Amino acid sequence: MTLNFLLHACHKNSRFIKKLKFIPPLVTFFVCAAATAQTCDALIQHGLRNITTSFSSEATAALQYFRHCQKNLDTMDSSRLAEAEVDIFGEGRGGGSYNEQQRRSSLQEWCTANRATAQRNQSSFQNSQVLYQGGLDAWNQCNALKIKGVQVAPKISADNDTVDIGVSFRAGVVGYYLLTGIQAEGYACKTSSPDGKKVTFPSRIEQLAFSVNCRRNPAKKETLGNETYLRKTRGVITIQTSDEPVQLFFPEEFQPTLPAAQATRILKMLPKAEPPVGTVLASTFTESQFFSDVNIPADATKWIPADGRLLPPGSIYEKITGKNAAPDLRWERDARVIVGTASGQANSGENVRAFAVGAPPEATWLWTVGLRDIAGNRPNNDYEQSEDQFQVFADSDGVITAQGRTLNWKHGAWGSWKAGTANVVGIATRKRDHLFYYVKIN
User: Fold this and answer.
1) CA–CA separation, 168 vs 210, rounded Å?
2) Which end of the chain lies in a sparser environment, N or C, as judged by fewer CB atoms within 10 Å?
3) 403 in a domain, yes or no?
4) How many helices (H) and strands (E) does the chain have?
């Protein structure tokens, strides 16, 4: 097989033939293969592998089961059927010599065989969905570009340490797109043109593939408890184009991993260790502080501020209560609390503050005074005395007035005020510490 034949088999772009005429035939073959292969389906499998890496193969099976097997496979349309096949069986499984009925039967057999496994691992389903969603988003982005002629073909090593991505443009499609950059976190990436030269962004995507080679940053030693692990930090690789980006996500990994049986027990225990849905938590943190990256246990998919806001769709809280909004506990945050009480007997002219003991200095006292022993006072000794009048109060300075007098109706004269005693009751309150409330919804 000659070089010219291989180049002709790839495509007939004379500009690239001139650039590649010095490359050995075997190398040229692989360049061509990368340009024509379209493996968006590999991104679905990558999402599933992320779950296996972070949880277990049984968690992966549970996710696949609950995504597809609870639907009616007999009435599923062809596009959903193809998605289920790619998800469960891997890339390339959905076509070939299988007719549609055989494909439905094959899926049904898988669902029946994995039902018990899925039920055992139902608790890990939600956590698995979060990881899987990244692979599904990448698959959707890749297919959106494919329709427009841009082909993204990722190849990921079994240990996730090496990622090779081909980016090319399908022959016969009108128009063009640009490769505008490669962004990486946790990986070092190098992009080469079809002739092996370094790429300057932006560059037009042609039929021969750009090659993106990414290597994961070295693992670091960490000690957890009495065990020493090699930890690979999470990684993200984003292929940026003048249209859709495609983003690949890689969860953090530990080596050695936990034994499978121990990991399974821990995963089953985690939901039981969490507070139940509906639990209200008081925190001194504002919303941004509570959900910050530093405050790791505060998961925004499980907790929400208890300020009356609408709940995200499908929360367990809504399913249980029938309410689509969080409880509003802002009144609780602004309430005052009792921090002390006082009571006793006082003479008129004394001050209630003499009773203000045992409460913190910042407390505010509320006082009430009532009649205890007060007598009327006659203006004379005539018998025509008809009415007694009493005054019992504390003024703004806390001075107590407790006095009485009597009216002589015949002469229309009041007697002078006569001092008495009063009952005093005080309650000390202070503003509640500035707390913020959060409710568990999932």
Assistant:
1) 6
2) N
3) yes
4) 12, 21
Task: Decide if 331 is inside a domain.
Answer: yes
One DSSP character per residue, 379-434 reads: SSS-S-EEEEEEEEEE-TT-BEEEEEEEEETTTTEEPPPEE-EEEEEEEEEEEPP-
Closest to 43 in 3D by CA, of 186, 251, 247: 247
Query: Token match 């024509």: residue?
Result: 36
Domain membership of residue 52 (yes or no) is no
Peptide bond into 312 cis (omega under 30): no
Exposed / middle / buried, residue 91 (Cβ in 10 Å: 0-12, 13-18, 19+): middle
Does residue 279 lie in a domain region? yes
Give me the residue label for tokens 């941004």.
288
Number of domains in the chain: 1
Q: How far apart are CA 256 and CA 289, in angstroms?
A: 34
Closest CA to 185 of 160, 216, 159, 224: 216
The band of 376, judged by pLDDT with boundaries at 50, 70 and 90, is confident
Q: Which of 68-72, 258-262, 296-300 has the lowest mean pLDDT?
A: 258-262
Residue 371 to residue 84: CA distance in whole angstroms: 83
Domain with 315, as residue range(s), is: 274-442
Q: What pTM was estimated for this model as a whole?
A: 0.40
